[in-house]
Design goal:
Organism: Phasianus colchicus
CATH class: Alpha Beta
Number of helices: 3
Largest sheet: 6 strands, antiparallel
Keywords: Glycoprotein, Isomerase, Repeat, Rotamase, Signal
Oligomer: single chain
Order of helices and strands: HEEEHEHEE
GO molecular function: peptidyl-prolyl cis-trans isomerase activity
Number of domains: 1
Catalytic activity: [protein]-peptidylproline (omega=180) = [protein]-peptidylproline (omega=0)
Number of strands: 6
Mean pLDDT: 79
Strand content: 25-35%
EC number: 5.2.1.8
CATH topology: Chitinase A, domain 3
């Protein structure tokens, strides 16, 4: 019984310690704002973006819509995990024409099994629309 109590106490203390460690979050830098912003993006909006992905460790580019996507921007729906979690967090409340740089920790990007490092994404919001079913 004492061993069971000790094990449970260890689990509880481990959970409490993990809860005290703040989770890494997305760093958002607004590089350029448009002159006018008629509407900000929100969950469920379709977004059209040009982006480049860089590893923070050595600055190497691992993807670019300008180079790897036939020069075409990418469409995705905000907030439903069509893109990495860090994009869903960092692109909310963005205006068309706004440029942002997102610095995303591995847990919100590709994880340890993917790129395994901080990633940065300079992005340009080219368009968005609220495309809700009628």
């Amino acid at each position: 019984m004492a061993a069971l109590r000790a094990a449970l106490l260890g689990v509880l203390l481990g959970c409490a310690a993990a809860a005290l460690i703040p989770a890494a979050d997305v760093k958002v830098e607004v590089l350029q704002k448009p002159f006018l912003c008629h509407r900000r993006t929100k969950w469920g909006d379709m977004m059209l973006v040009h982006y480049e992905g860089f590893l923070q460790s050595d600055g190497s580019m691992f993807h670019s819509t300008h180079k790897h996507n036939n020069g075409q921007p990418m469409w995705f729906t905000l907030g439903i995990r069509e893109a990495i979690k860090g994009w869903d967090k960092g692109l909310k409340d963005m205006c068309v024409g706004e440029k942002r740089k997102l610095t995303i920790p591995p847990a919100l990007a590709y994880g340890k099994e993917g790129k395994g490092a901080l990633c940065s994404f300079p992005l340009t919001g080219l368009g968005s629309c609220a495309c809700y079913p009628k």
